[in-house]
Amino acid sequence: MESVLTAYTIKENVNALLPGRSTDYNTIVLTPKEKLYIKMSPLKIIKESCSKSFLTYEGSLAVIRKKLGIQYKVPLPINTALGIYAFPTMSSTHPDCIWLFDHRIKWIEDISQKSKKFKSKVHFIDGTSLSLTVSTYTLNEQRRRVKLCIDKFEAEQTLS
Question: What's the predicted TM-score (pTM) here?
């Protein structure tokens, strides 16, 4: 295994944050070329990365809940200047929550008929993919929510 990093900030090339199942690390960061092992939890990485671009997790959550009416599995802007928005596959506090980055997704395939374990395969723009136990409907709904979030943030910036 590669070395374990104590901290990490989300960059444009991140495909997903996976929960780690090790005493050595709490998150696996998937990029096109490598897997990074990080001591921080996925949610902590999300929160820290938001703050680097002058956003707060709590503030973004509150604004999106109020303006878009999304209460659960809220998509988040990580860095609006770079177009980085993420969405959780389940409650952000659930230990199995995976964070996906919408700008990196090419398409989502329903594999529920082909697999007993997985329901969806997320295909990323770099040619890699990730099989998930989350339904294709749920993932597509989360992507729709991200689009609403992006539209709202862009509209707000235009009015400023």
Answer: 0.93
| Short-list 143, 39, 68, CA closest to 100 | 143
Per residue in 93-141, pLDDT (tens digit) is 999 999 999 999 999 999 999 999 999 999 999 999 999 999 999 999 9
Structure-block tokens of residue 81: 């200047």
Amino acid identity of residue 9, one-letter, is T
Q: Which of 54, 121, 52, 47 is nearest to 86 (CA)?
A: 47
For 134, phi then psi, to 5°, come to -95, 140
Reduced to 3 states (helix: H, G, I; strand: E, B; else coil), residue 47 is: helix
CB atoms within 10 A of CB 10: 22
Q: Which two tokens stand for residue 70?
A: 């999304």
